[in-house]
Amino acid sequence: MRMRIQKTFEALFALEEIRELFRTSLPTGFDLEEEAAFHRQIAELRTIVADLEAGTGSPRVAKIAGTIDLRTREEQFINIQPIQAAGRLTVEARKALISYGDGYSTCDACRKPFRLDKISKPGIAEFHEDLAKFVNMDQARVVPGARRGFQAVTGTLVEKGDSVIVSALAHYTEFLAVENAGGIVREVPLNENNIVTADATAQKIEKVEWETGKLPALMMIDHFDYQFANEHDIAGIGKVARQYDIPFLYNGAYTVGIRPVDGKKIGADFVVGSGHKSMASVAPSGVLATTDEWAAKVFRTTAMVGDLTSRMFGIKEVEMLGCTLMGGTLLSMMASFPAVKARTLKWDDEVKNSNYFIDRLLKIAGSKVLSEYPRKHTLTKVDTTGSFDTVARTHKRRGFYFSDELSSRGIVGEFAGATRTWKLNTYGLNERKIRYLADAFAEIAEKYEIPVAP
Amino acid sequence: MRMRIQKTFEALFALEEIRELFRTSLPTGFDLEEEAAFHRQIAELRTIVADLEAGTGSPRVAKIAGTIDLRTREEQFINIQPIQAAGRLTVEARKALISYGDGYSTCDACRKPFRLDKISKPGIAEFHEDLAKFVNMDQARVVPGARRGFQAVTGTLVEKGDSVIVSALAHYTEFLAVENAGGIVREVPLNENNIVTADATAQKIEKVEWETGKLPALMMIDHFDYQFANEHDIAGIGKVARQYDIPFLYNGAYTVGIRPVDGKKIGADFVVGSGHKSMASVAPSGVLATTDEWAAKVFRTTAMVGDLTSRMFGIKEVEMLGCTLMGGTLLSMMASFPAVKARTLKWDDEVKNSNYFIDRLLKIAGSKVLSEYPRKHTLTKVDTTGSFDTVARTHKRRGFYFSDELSSRGIVGEFAGATRTWKLNTYGLNERKIRYLADAFAEIAEKYEIPVAP
After folding, report:
1. Same domain, A21 and A42
2. Nearest CB to A22; choose among B75, B180, B319
3. Chain-chain contact of B103 with A281 (C-beta, under 8 angstroms)
4. Is B23 on the interface with A (CB under 8 A)?
5. What's the complex ipTM?
6. Range of the domain at B369
7. Which residues of B are less than 8 Å from A123 in CB distance?
8. Contacts of A330 in chain B (CB under 8 A)
9. N or C: chain A end with fewer CB closer than 10 Å?
10. Angle formed at CA B213 by CA B211 and CA B214, multiple of 5 degrees
């Protein structure tokens, strides 16, 4: 298996070398020398393909650019890393990336008014419309990561000293986006089940108003948080936002691209999603969608005039800093998009798989789930202090014994050495892999004589 | 030629389909069905490779993800598009991208303190050190485009109403970065040769101080501007910055990655470069480098504390919003970097090629160069109003006749339909291509009976 994977990369790389021949030759075609080099390289490619089929040969390529290892994690292993699962590229995204990797590849047919989201070849303009519809908002822009979406909103709405409501499980990028704008985060407490409720949000708003004499400038709440991936009462919170008339940013880093999101139904003024986290796209990428009303503000165009030249760059958007994802990042989003739209409709199956695995884990004596249960998400925080950690305490490899056992079964992505509380994500694993994964955990438990219920 | 290029892409795509088999199968290997599918796909690949070698067959792949055309611009044509030339990926970058395209691909071995520039596998930490050295500064961070580097600096240094010195040829992203921070651009006038001088800069500073009672908060000057790619007196301007003690941002979007840049010698406090414009990297990418003194400010870490949880995310940098380029963008920069470093040492050859082409263009009667001449850069603004435009005036295709003539000779990247003033870039074209390009322009002139001097 390993050699076949190695040879797949080598064949891809050999083709990139062949491609480079076209790039360095004249448009009129190869000269004799180039033609000879071409046939030599094709012969090499054939040898690699023969090895690829047979699984024979030895590695020819060790490093990229002399220093970078091949990354074969997704080919060789089942990867349960908490943040990587839904950012894995689709096959179409990988093709798009091969084709559109070059720097400003999106700009071949850029015409007036010279803005990324207006380009129609490739269909970037249409993609922007589709993106807005996808989360049921009026307008959307692609951004270099969800965090840059937060930044655009805080940069627009938050003045120095303003309060911003976030959850007690808010992601650090929300803290930074608020800090960057000069604001102050005010956290909504969790209930006993680690859930942010509408009531708690309303109370926090009241408290902020009481203490500062001013309503918060913005609310940013994660539908599912990054710690437990618990589902928070986002619709109820949306209603609270309406009641107090506070702009509401829906953080969909863990939803947009994997499950349906309806921004208007939620009552969101802004919907932010992450391309590399949940939309099978190259980093950094993401989406910021909003209503027509807010678009005028958050997507405001430049008003700056050169004092000497009177130059103006009228259509460029200040918070976007003009164009955002001018190449492979955007094309990977676009190429994955049909598959991403389709997969959000199969979210129930993903949740079912997640619960299947967690149920099996819970059969291993002493294991606990720290996230809400039954699971409503594929990301889960588990506590194996009472199970796998009991072995780590006396094992010479400590917690790493567990990583060793997993990787010997072709599983990676756990936090190496951690056997107490840790996170995993089953997103995108097919049923067969889920079963394999659960079996592997049970096998390891049995090997170390941790009881496993039938 | 075209069919061979088509088949190169088809072979790459077929390999991505094969790769997907590994991704969906169990780590234990293929089952019988998968093994059969694998052999079928290998057989298909062999057919494609046979067609690739012979240049036979018909296209099998029309669109990526059903809607996206193959982009074969760099394989089929000589591309003289002004901003694309130096962002074209190296072959190693394309390999890295194949390997590291997946979302958070950089994060496999992310350990405490959990920040992108601290990761040592792949060698991201070392790359950051190399990047800083490359432009002779103390510290560097990768950013999602040069514009995000400007933004980090204006966000740190510019308060509402502050003046920022820019050039009368400043790029629009500098305007936006200043506007975003609430500042006001103050343009330095050009001299009669469209050059920004140290004297003019000093005078503008004096004028701003006189008018506002305050020194500008920042100076941002392009070494070579985006309009003419004229070289401005960046070292003299650096001295002026020292004299007035104004922080100085060197905009190297058109230098870092193609010619040597020595930030300290220039007297820069900040050096900004663009990955997708000049470092053979995927967009959006770039670099922000600075001195140790300024690093403490522009790379300041978060001070925000959760009011309820007392959470702090100590090492995360506010202006970077934490991690920046967590995947393929960064890996493309890293993989191109050895070639990029090497090519900056061959800048003189590039300039020689640029002048060779411009000299040949000037032999075509009525042609002018609007940029400084002899050229010191590969990007040039030309004026063909007196040559190629004389034909356009009566041609039924108007200016598009010129595009037609170029593309029939395998040349693209001119602004379609433009025959008066327009920009082109010869960066990266080898001598043979440069000669071919110059010949093509002469041929077109001769075809339309525009005199060409010997």
Report:
1. yes
2. B75
3. yes
4. yes
5. 0.98
6. 347-447
7. 67-68
8. 283
9. C
10. 110
